[in-house]
Batch of 2 targets.
Target 1
Amino acid sequence: MRATDHLCQLAAADWKAATTHPFTTELAAGTLPLSKMRWYLAQDYQFIDGFVRLLASAIAHAPSLADSVPAAQFLAVITGPENTYFLRSFDALDMDEAARNVPPAAATRDFQDLMAEAAASGRYELMLAVLVVAEWTYLSWATPVNPPRNDLPFWFAEWITLHAGEGFEGVVEYLRAQLDQVWPTLSAPAQQEVETLFIRAVALEYAFFDASYAACPQS
Ligand SMILES: Cc1ncc(CN)c(N)n1
Protein backbone atom coordinates (compact mmCIF):
# COMPACT_ATOMS: atom_id res chain seq x y z
CA MET A 1 0.00 0.00 0.00
CA ARG A 2 1.20 3.53 -0.69
CA ALA A 3 2.34 5.32 2.46
CA THR A 4 -0.04 8.18 1.67
CA ASP A 5 -2.96 5.73 1.44
CA HIS A 6 -1.96 4.36 4.84
CA LEU A 7 -1.90 7.91 6.26
CA CYS A 8 -5.26 8.73 4.72
CA GLN A 9 -6.78 5.62 6.28
CA LEU A 10 -5.51 6.64 9.72
CA ALA A 11 -7.56 9.83 9.42
CA ALA A 12 -10.53 8.23 7.64
CA ALA A 13 -13.40 9.73 9.64
CA ASP A 14 -12.14 13.33 9.53
CA TRP A 15 -11.06 12.86 5.93
CA LYS A 16 -14.60 11.93 4.92
CA ALA A 17 -16.06 14.79 6.95
CA ALA A 18 -13.64 17.32 5.42
CA THR A 19 -14.14 16.18 1.83
CA THR A 20 -17.96 15.92 1.88
CA HIS A 21 -18.65 19.01 3.96
CA PRO A 22 -21.88 21.00 3.49
CA PHE A 23 -19.70 24.10 2.97
CA THR A 24 -18.33 22.72 -0.30
CA THR A 25 -21.57 20.96 -1.29
CA GLU A 26 -23.42 24.27 -1.05
CA LEU A 27 -20.55 26.13 -2.72
CA ALA A 28 -20.84 23.78 -5.72
CA ALA A 29 -24.63 24.11 -5.78
CA GLY A 30 -24.37 27.90 -5.64
CA THR A 31 -26.47 28.03 -2.46
CA LEU A 32 -23.72 28.86 0.03
CA PRO A 33 -24.64 32.15 1.76
CA LEU A 34 -22.28 34.90 0.59
CA SER A 35 -21.64 35.98 4.17
CA LYS A 36 -20.08 32.55 4.82
CA MET A 37 -18.05 32.73 1.60
CA ARG A 38 -16.75 36.19 2.56
CA TRP A 39 -15.74 34.89 5.98
CA TYR A 40 -14.01 31.89 4.40
CA LEU A 41 -12.14 34.00 1.82
CA ALA A 42 -10.84 36.46 4.41
CA GLN A 43 -9.64 33.61 6.64
CA ASP A 44 -8.27 31.45 3.84
CA TYR A 45 -6.23 34.33 2.43
CA GLN A 46 -4.42 34.32 5.77
CA PHE A 47 -3.96 30.56 5.47
CA ILE A 48 -2.36 31.13 2.04
CA ASP A 49 0.34 33.31 3.57
CA GLY A 50 1.57 30.44 5.77
CA PHE A 51 1.04 27.95 2.98
CA VAL A 52 3.35 29.84 0.61
CA ARG A 53 6.07 29.89 3.28
CA LEU A 54 5.63 26.16 3.89
CA LEU A 55 5.75 25.30 0.20
CA ALA A 56 8.85 27.47 -0.22
CA SER A 57 10.47 25.59 2.69
CA ALA A 58 9.64 22.26 1.05
CA ILE A 59 11.24 23.49 -2.18
CA ALA A 60 14.35 24.40 -0.20
CA HIS A 61 14.45 20.90 1.36
CA ALA A 62 13.69 18.79 -1.73
CA PRO A 63 16.45 16.22 -2.28
CA SER A 64 17.20 17.35 -5.84
CA LEU A 65 16.33 20.02 -8.38
CA ALA A 66 14.11 17.54 -10.23
CA ASP A 67 12.22 16.86 -6.99
CA SER A 68 11.68 20.58 -6.44
CA VAL A 69 10.56 21.71 -9.91
CA PRO A 70 6.85 20.68 -9.70
CA ALA A 71 6.57 22.39 -6.29
CA ALA A 72 8.19 25.54 -7.64
CA GLN A 73 5.73 25.54 -10.54
CA PHE A 74 2.84 25.05 -8.12
CA LEU A 75 4.12 27.96 -6.01
CA ALA A 76 3.75 30.13 -9.11
CA VAL A 77 0.10 29.06 -9.42
CA ILE A 78 -0.62 29.91 -5.79
CA THR A 79 1.08 33.30 -5.99
CA GLY A 80 -0.35 33.93 -9.49
CA PRO A 81 -3.85 32.78 -10.49
CA GLU A 82 -4.88 31.75 -6.98
CA ASN A 83 -3.75 35.03 -5.46
CA THR A 84 -5.62 37.05 -8.08
CA TYR A 85 -8.70 34.83 -7.58
CA PHE A 86 -8.79 36.09 -3.97
CA LEU A 87 -8.27 39.72 -4.95
CA ARG A 88 -10.96 39.57 -7.68
CA SER A 89 -13.36 37.83 -5.27
CA PHE A 90 -12.77 40.46 -2.57
CA ASP A 91 -13.65 43.16 -5.10
CA ALA A 92 -16.66 41.36 -6.58
CA LEU A 93 -18.05 40.57 -3.13
CA ASP A 94 -17.60 44.19 -1.98
CA MET A 95 -15.07 43.31 0.68
CA ASP A 96 -13.26 46.48 1.67
CA GLU A 97 -9.91 46.63 3.49
CA ALA A 98 -11.60 46.10 6.86
CA ALA A 99 -13.50 43.02 5.61
CA ARG A 100 -10.34 41.53 4.09
CA ASN A 101 -8.10 42.18 7.07
CA VAL A 102 -10.04 40.52 9.87
CA PRO A 103 -8.25 38.93 12.81
CA PRO A 104 -7.50 35.23 12.30
CA ALA A 105 -10.15 32.86 13.68
CA ALA A 106 -9.10 30.01 15.98
CA ALA A 107 -9.27 27.54 13.05
CA THR A 108 -6.98 29.78 11.00
CA ARG A 109 -4.51 30.28 13.83
CA ASP A 110 -4.36 26.53 14.46
CA PHE A 111 -3.53 25.94 10.81
CA GLN A 112 -0.96 28.74 10.76
CA ASP A 113 0.71 27.20 13.81
CA LEU A 114 0.77 23.77 12.18
CA MET A 115 2.29 25.10 8.95
CA ALA A 116 4.85 27.23 10.79
CA GLU A 117 5.82 24.21 12.91
CA ALA A 118 6.25 21.99 9.85
CA ALA A 119 8.30 24.65 8.04
CA ALA A 120 10.51 25.31 11.07
CA SER A 121 11.12 21.59 11.65
CA GLY A 122 13.56 21.54 8.75
CA ARG A 123 12.22 18.07 7.98
CA TYR A 124 10.98 17.47 4.44
CA GLU A 125 8.61 14.65 5.43
CA LEU A 126 6.77 16.83 7.95
CA MET A 127 6.39 19.65 5.42
CA LEU A 128 5.06 17.13 2.89
CA ALA A 129 2.57 15.66 5.38
CA VAL A 130 0.84 19.03 5.73
CA LEU A 131 1.09 19.90 2.03
CA VAL A 132 -0.35 16.52 0.98
CA VAL A 133 -3.34 16.94 3.28
CA ALA A 134 -4.00 20.54 2.20
CA GLU A 135 -4.03 19.71 -1.51
CA TRP A 136 -5.34 16.14 -1.54
CA THR A 137 -8.41 16.97 0.58
CA TYR A 138 -9.22 19.83 -1.80
CA LEU A 139 -8.78 17.60 -4.86
CA SER A 140 -11.12 15.09 -3.20
CA TRP A 141 -14.02 17.47 -2.63
CA ALA A 142 -13.57 19.41 -5.87
CA THR A 143 -13.24 16.51 -8.32
CA PRO A 144 -16.84 15.21 -8.03
CA VAL A 145 -18.22 18.73 -8.63
CA ASN A 146 -15.93 19.55 -11.57
CA PRO A 147 -16.75 20.98 -14.08
CA PRO A 148 -18.75 23.49 -12.08
CA ARG A 149 -22.34 24.36 -12.95
CA ASN A 150 -22.21 26.97 -15.68
CA ASP A 151 -24.48 29.37 -13.77
CA LEU A 152 -22.07 29.68 -10.84
CA PRO A 153 -20.44 33.05 -10.13
CA PHE A 154 -16.67 32.95 -10.57
CA TRP A 155 -15.98 33.10 -6.81
CA PHE A 156 -17.59 29.66 -6.51
CA ALA A 157 -16.70 28.18 -9.93
CA GLU A 158 -13.01 29.07 -9.89
CA TRP A 159 -12.55 27.72 -6.38
CA ILE A 160 -13.58 24.38 -7.86
CA THR A 161 -11.51 24.61 -11.05
CA LEU A 162 -8.40 25.70 -9.12
CA HIS A 163 -8.63 22.41 -7.18
CA ALA A 164 -9.61 19.88 -9.84
CA GLY A 165 -8.58 18.73 -13.30
CA GLU A 166 -5.44 17.29 -14.81
CA GLY A 167 -2.98 19.98 -13.69
CA PHE A 168 -4.06 19.87 -10.05
CA GLU A 169 -4.22 16.07 -10.07
CA GLY A 170 -0.56 16.19 -11.16
CA VAL A 171 0.31 18.46 -8.20
CA VAL A 172 -1.32 16.08 -5.72
CA GLU A 173 0.29 13.04 -7.32
CA TYR A 174 3.68 14.75 -7.15
CA LEU A 175 3.29 15.66 -3.45
CA ARG A 176 2.08 12.17 -2.59
CA ALA A 177 4.94 10.56 -4.53
CA GLN A 178 7.46 12.72 -2.66
CA LEU A 179 6.07 11.56 0.69
CA ASP A 180 5.77 7.94 -0.48
CA GLN A 181 9.42 8.09 -1.55
CA VAL A 182 10.79 9.44 1.72
CA TRP A 183 8.58 7.26 3.98
CA PRO A 184 10.62 3.99 3.87
CA THR A 185 13.80 5.91 4.72
CA LEU A 186 12.31 7.15 8.03
CA SER A 187 12.79 5.53 11.44
CA ALA A 188 9.66 4.22 13.19
CA PRO A 189 9.49 7.27 15.53
CA ALA A 190 9.87 9.61 12.56
CA GLN A 191 7.06 7.79 10.72
CA GLN A 192 4.93 8.21 13.82
CA GLU A 193 5.56 11.95 13.81
CA VAL A 194 4.40 12.10 10.19
CA GLU A 195 1.27 10.15 11.12
CA THR A 196 0.52 12.50 14.02
CA LEU A 197 0.97 15.61 11.87
CA PHE A 198 -1.06 14.17 9.00
CA ILE A 199 -3.95 13.30 11.34
CA ARG A 200 -3.78 16.77 12.92
CA ALA A 201 -3.82 18.44 9.50
CA VAL A 202 -6.91 16.50 8.37
CA ALA A 203 -8.71 17.44 11.60
CA LEU A 204 -7.84 21.09 10.96
CA GLU A 205 -9.20 20.95 7.39
CA TYR A 206 -12.47 19.69 8.82
CA ALA A 207 -12.45 22.34 11.56
CA PHE A 208 -11.76 25.09 9.01
CA PHE A 209 -14.83 24.16 6.95
CA ASP A 210 -16.90 23.79 10.11
CA ALA A 211 -15.90 27.25 11.30
CA SER A 212 -16.63 28.74 7.87
CA TYR A 213 -20.02 27.05 7.68
CA ALA A 214 -20.94 28.17 11.19
CA ALA A 215 -19.89 31.79 10.49
CA CYS A 216 -22.44 34.60 10.07
CA PRO A 217 -25.52 32.52 11.00
CA GLN A 218 -27.96 35.44 10.53
CA SER A 219 -27.43 36.01 6.82
C1 LIG B 1 -7.59 25.60 4.78
C2 LIG B 1 -7.18 25.28 3.36
N1 LIG B 1 -6.70 24.05 3.07
C3 LIG B 1 -6.33 23.78 1.79
C4 LIG B 1 -6.41 24.69 0.80
C5 LIG B 1 -6.02 24.33 -0.59
N2 LIG B 1 -4.98 25.06 -1.13
C6 LIG B 1 -6.88 25.94 1.14
N3 LIG B 1 -7.00 26.94 0.23
N4 LIG B 1 -7.29 26.25 2.43
Target 2
Amino acid sequence: MLDIEGLVTGYGSTTVLRGADLSVGRGEVTCLLGRNGVGKTTVLRAAMGLLPTWKGVLRWEGTPISALPTHRRARLGFGFVPQGREILPQLTVEENIRIGGFASGERDPEIPPELFDYFPDLKKMLRRRGGNLSGGQQQQLAIARALMGRPKLLILDEPTEGIQPNLVALIRSVVTALNRERGLSVLLVEQKIGFARKIGHAYTILDRGQVVADGRMESLDDSVIRAHLEVS
Ligand SMILES: Nc1ncnc2c1ncn2[C@@H]1O[C@H](COP(=O)(O)OP(=O)(O)OP(=O)(O)O)[C@@H](O)[C@H]1O
Protein backbone atom coordinates (compact mmCIF):
# COMPACT_ATOMS: atom_id res chain seq x y z
CA MET A 1 0.00 0.00 0.00
CA LEU A 2 2.73 2.48 1.06
CA ASP A 3 6.28 1.83 -0.12
CA ILE A 4 9.18 4.07 0.84
CA GLU A 5 12.42 3.38 -1.01
CA GLY A 6 15.80 4.97 -0.36
CA LEU A 7 14.34 7.98 1.45
CA VAL A 8 16.82 10.77 2.10
CA THR A 9 15.62 13.88 3.94
CA GLY A 10 16.35 16.10 6.92
CA TYR A 11 16.17 19.62 8.24
CA GLY A 12 18.03 22.54 6.68
CA SER A 13 21.51 21.31 5.87
CA THR A 14 21.26 18.33 8.26
CA THR A 15 20.56 14.93 6.71
CA VAL A 16 18.52 12.72 9.07
CA LEU A 17 17.31 9.84 6.88
CA ARG A 18 20.10 8.31 4.81
CA GLY A 19 18.28 5.96 2.46
CA ALA A 20 15.42 4.49 4.52
CA ASP A 21 13.18 1.72 3.13
CA LEU A 22 9.82 0.82 4.62
CA SER A 23 6.57 -0.76 3.48
CA VAL A 24 3.10 -0.94 4.95
CA GLY A 25 1.00 -3.79 3.55
CA ARG A 26 -2.72 -3.37 2.94
CA GLY A 27 -4.69 -4.21 6.06
CA GLU A 28 -1.55 -4.51 8.16
CA VAL A 29 -0.19 -2.77 11.24
CA THR A 30 3.50 -1.91 10.84
CA CYS A 31 5.46 -0.63 13.84
CA LEU A 32 8.42 1.67 13.29
CA LEU A 33 10.85 1.19 16.17
CA GLY A 34 14.19 2.66 17.18
CA ARG A 35 16.05 4.48 19.92
CA ASN A 36 15.49 8.16 20.61
CA GLY A 37 16.45 10.57 17.84
CA VAL A 38 17.12 8.00 15.08
CA GLY A 39 14.60 9.58 12.70
CA LYS A 40 11.26 7.81 13.28
CA THR A 41 9.15 10.98 13.40
CA THR A 42 11.05 12.23 10.37
CA VAL A 43 9.90 9.16 8.38
CA LEU A 44 6.27 9.87 9.29
CA ARG A 45 6.56 13.56 8.43
CA ALA A 46 8.10 12.74 5.07
CA ALA A 47 5.36 10.17 4.40
CA MET A 48 2.75 12.89 5.08
CA GLY A 49 4.55 15.41 2.85
CA LEU A 50 5.37 17.66 5.79
CA LEU A 51 9.03 17.29 4.83
CA PRO A 52 10.32 17.14 1.25
CA THR A 53 11.84 13.98 -0.23
CA TRP A 54 15.43 14.89 -1.10
CA LYS A 55 16.17 11.53 -2.68
CA GLY A 56 14.27 8.27 -3.02
CA VAL A 57 10.69 7.39 -3.93
CA LEU A 58 7.43 7.16 -2.01
CA ARG A 59 4.70 5.08 -3.63
CA TRP A 60 1.03 4.81 -2.73
CA GLU A 61 -0.59 1.72 -4.25
CA GLY A 62 2.21 1.73 -6.82
CA THR A 63 1.94 5.41 -7.83
CA PRO A 64 4.79 7.82 -6.97
CA ILE A 65 3.58 10.50 -4.52
CA SER A 66 6.84 12.16 -3.44
CA ALA A 67 5.88 15.43 -5.15
CA LEU A 68 2.32 15.61 -3.75
CA PRO A 69 1.55 18.17 -1.04
CA THR A 70 0.08 17.04 2.28
CA HIS A 71 -3.57 17.85 1.49
CA ARG A 72 -3.42 15.73 -1.68
CA ARG A 73 -2.02 12.82 0.33
CA ALA A 74 -4.85 13.29 2.84
CA ARG A 75 -7.34 12.94 -0.01
CA LEU A 76 -5.62 9.80 -1.24
CA GLY A 77 -6.26 8.23 2.17
CA PHE A 78 -3.52 9.25 4.60
CA GLY A 79 -4.63 10.09 8.14
CA PHE A 80 -2.11 11.48 10.63
CA VAL A 81 -2.02 11.57 14.42
CA PRO A 82 1.08 13.60 15.30
CA GLN A 83 3.33 13.26 18.32
CA GLY A 84 1.88 15.31 21.17
CA ARG A 85 -1.54 15.02 19.45
CA GLU A 86 -1.89 18.74 18.60
CA ILE A 87 -5.40 19.15 19.95
CA LEU A 88 -6.69 22.75 19.74
CA PRO A 89 -7.17 23.48 23.45
CA GLN A 90 -9.75 26.28 23.17
CA LEU A 91 -12.03 24.40 20.79
CA THR A 92 -14.59 21.85 21.96
CA VAL A 93 -14.21 18.12 21.45
CA GLU A 94 -16.84 18.30 18.70
CA GLU A 95 -15.02 21.12 16.91
CA ASN A 96 -11.69 19.33 17.17
CA ILE A 97 -13.22 16.21 15.58
CA ARG A 98 -14.92 18.17 12.78
CA ILE A 99 -11.64 19.84 11.86
CA GLY A 100 -10.51 16.46 10.55
CA GLY A 101 -13.33 16.64 7.99
CA PHE A 102 -12.37 20.15 6.85
CA ALA A 103 -8.82 18.95 6.34
CA SER A 104 -9.99 16.38 3.82
CA GLY A 105 -11.94 18.97 1.83
CA GLU A 106 -15.49 18.79 3.24
CA ARG A 107 -17.28 22.12 3.65
CA ASP A 108 -19.53 21.27 6.56
CA PRO A 109 -18.36 17.95 7.92
CA GLU A 110 -20.81 15.98 10.05
CA ILE A 111 -19.52 13.44 12.52
CA PRO A 112 -20.75 9.98 11.47
CA PRO A 113 -22.52 8.44 14.51
CA GLU A 114 -20.64 5.17 14.08
CA LEU A 115 -17.41 7.00 14.93
CA PHE A 116 -18.57 6.96 18.54
CA ASP A 117 -18.78 3.15 18.51
CA TYR A 118 -15.01 3.35 18.88
CA PHE A 119 -14.95 6.36 21.22
CA PRO A 120 -17.99 6.23 23.55
CA ASP A 121 -16.20 8.46 26.08
CA LEU A 122 -15.87 11.28 23.55
CA LYS A 123 -19.59 11.23 22.88
CA LYS A 124 -20.18 12.18 26.51
CA MET A 125 -17.83 15.18 26.37
CA LEU A 126 -18.57 16.82 23.02
CA ARG A 127 -19.01 20.28 24.59
CA ARG A 128 -15.85 20.16 26.71
CA ARG A 129 -12.77 22.05 25.63
CA GLY A 130 -10.04 19.91 24.12
CA GLY A 131 -7.48 21.40 26.49
CA ASN A 132 -9.38 20.05 29.52
CA LEU A 133 -9.10 16.40 28.47
CA SER A 134 -6.59 13.92 29.91
CA GLY A 135 -3.73 12.66 27.73
CA GLY A 136 -5.57 9.42 26.97
CA GLN A 137 -8.77 11.25 26.06
CA GLN A 138 -6.81 13.64 23.82
CA GLN A 139 -5.23 10.66 22.08
CA GLN A 140 -8.69 9.24 21.36
CA LEU A 141 -9.75 12.68 20.13
CA ALA A 142 -6.74 12.92 17.81
CA ILE A 143 -7.52 9.48 16.34
CA ALA A 144 -11.20 10.40 15.92
CA ARG A 145 -10.18 13.64 14.17
CA ALA A 146 -7.93 11.70 11.77
CA LEU A 147 -10.76 9.23 11.01
CA MET A 148 -12.97 12.10 9.81
CA GLY A 149 -10.89 12.12 6.63
CA ARG A 150 -11.90 8.45 6.04
CA PRO A 151 -8.27 7.32 5.77
CA LYS A 152 -7.09 4.04 4.34
CA LEU A 153 -3.77 4.38 6.16
CA LEU A 154 -3.57 5.75 9.69
CA ILE A 155 -0.16 7.10 10.73
CA LEU A 156 0.35 7.40 14.48
CA ASP A 157 3.37 8.91 16.22
CA GLU A 158 3.86 7.39 19.69
CA PRO A 159 0.18 7.04 20.56
CA THR A 160 0.95 5.75 24.08
CA GLU A 161 3.37 8.51 25.09
CA GLY A 162 2.41 10.01 28.45
CA ILE A 163 -0.73 7.91 28.80
CA GLN A 164 -1.86 5.93 31.87
CA PRO A 165 -1.56 2.12 31.54
CA ASN A 166 -5.32 1.45 31.50
CA LEU A 167 -5.76 3.93 28.65
CA VAL A 168 -2.82 2.42 26.76
CA ALA A 169 -4.84 -0.81 26.61
CA LEU A 170 -7.85 1.17 25.39
CA ILE A 171 -5.86 2.84 22.61
CA ARG A 172 -4.55 -0.58 21.57
CA SER A 173 -8.02 -2.06 21.41
CA VAL A 174 -9.34 0.88 19.37
CA VAL A 175 -6.51 0.68 16.82
CA THR A 176 -6.82 -3.12 16.62
CA ALA A 177 -10.60 -2.86 16.10
CA LEU A 178 -10.17 -0.25 13.35
CA ASN A 179 -7.65 -2.51 11.66
CA ARG A 180 -9.75 -5.69 11.95
CA GLU A 181 -13.22 -4.27 11.39
CA ARG A 182 -12.54 -1.53 8.86
CA GLY A 183 -9.42 -2.98 7.25
CA LEU A 184 -7.53 0.19 8.11
CA SER A 185 -3.79 -0.08 7.49
CA VAL A 186 -1.62 1.42 10.22
CA LEU A 187 1.92 2.75 10.48
CA LEU A 188 2.89 3.60 14.02
CA VAL A 189 5.98 4.75 15.83
CA GLU A 190 6.29 3.16 19.24
CA GLN A 191 8.81 3.01 22.07
CA LYS A 192 7.04 0.29 24.08
CA ILE A 193 8.10 -3.07 22.66
CA GLY A 194 5.31 -4.94 24.48
CA PHE A 195 2.71 -2.69 22.89
CA ALA A 196 4.29 -3.05 19.44
CA ARG A 197 4.35 -6.84 19.77
CA LYS A 198 0.67 -6.99 20.66
CA ILE A 199 -0.55 -4.57 18.01
CA GLY A 200 1.77 -5.09 15.04
CA HIS A 201 1.92 -7.56 12.16
CA ALA A 202 5.31 -6.32 10.98
CA TYR A 203 8.16 -4.17 12.29
CA THR A 204 10.88 -1.95 10.92
CA ILE A 205 13.80 -0.77 13.07
CA LEU A 206 15.59 2.45 12.28
CA ASP A 207 19.06 3.39 13.48
CA ARG A 208 20.83 6.60 12.56
CA GLY A 209 18.60 7.25 9.58
CA GLN A 210 18.73 3.77 8.07
CA VAL A 211 16.73 0.59 8.42
CA VAL A 212 18.75 -2.01 10.32
CA ALA A 213 16.12 -4.75 10.71
CA ASP A 214 12.61 -5.55 9.57
CA GLY A 215 10.27 -8.52 9.33
CA ARG A 216 7.15 -10.14 10.69
CA MET A 217 6.43 -9.27 14.31
CA GLU A 218 6.87 -12.94 15.36
CA SER A 219 10.52 -12.68 14.31
CA LEU A 220 11.25 -9.71 16.60
CA ASP A 221 13.29 -11.72 19.11
CA ASP A 222 15.46 -10.66 22.04
CA SER A 223 18.68 -10.65 20.03
CA VAL A 224 17.23 -8.12 17.57
CA ILE A 225 15.97 -5.99 20.48
CA ARG A 226 19.36 -6.13 22.25
CA ALA A 227 21.22 -5.19 19.09
CA HIS A 228 19.07 -2.31 17.95
CA LEU A 229 16.66 -1.09 20.59
CA GLU A 230 18.17 -1.31 24.05
CA VAL A 231 20.33 1.60 25.13
CA SER A 232 23.93 0.40 24.98
N1 LIG B 1 12.57 20.56 13.25
C1 LIG B 1 13.82 20.07 13.34
N2 LIG B 1 14.90 20.81 13.01
C2 LIG B 1 16.15 20.32 13.09
N3 LIG B 1 16.45 19.06 13.50
C3 LIG B 1 15.43 18.27 13.86
C4 LIG B 1 14.06 18.73 13.80
N4 LIG B 1 13.26 17.71 14.21
C5 LIG B 1 14.08 16.69 14.52
N5 LIG B 1 15.38 17.00 14.29
C6 LIG B 1 16.54 16.12 14.50
O1 LIG B 1 16.41 15.01 13.63
C7 LIG B 1 16.84 13.82 14.26
C8 LIG B 1 15.75 12.78 14.20
O2 LIG B 1 14.61 13.26 14.92
P1 LIG B 1 13.24 12.45 14.98
O3 LIG B 1 12.30 13.28 15.79
O4 LIG B 1 12.83 12.02 13.63
O5 LIG B 1 13.68 11.16 15.80
P2 LIG B 1 12.80 10.07 16.55
O6 LIG B 1 13.42 8.75 16.25
O7 LIG B 1 11.36 10.26 16.20
O8 LIG B 1 13.06 10.45 18.06
P3 LIG B 1 12.14 10.36 19.38
O9 LIG B 1 11.99 8.93 19.68
O10 LIG B 1 12.98 11.09 20.40
O11 LIG B 1 10.84 11.07 19.06
C9 LIG B 1 17.24 14.21 15.69
O12 LIG B 1 18.63 14.35 15.73
C10 LIG B 1 16.56 15.53 15.89
O13 LIG B 1 17.31 16.34 16.78
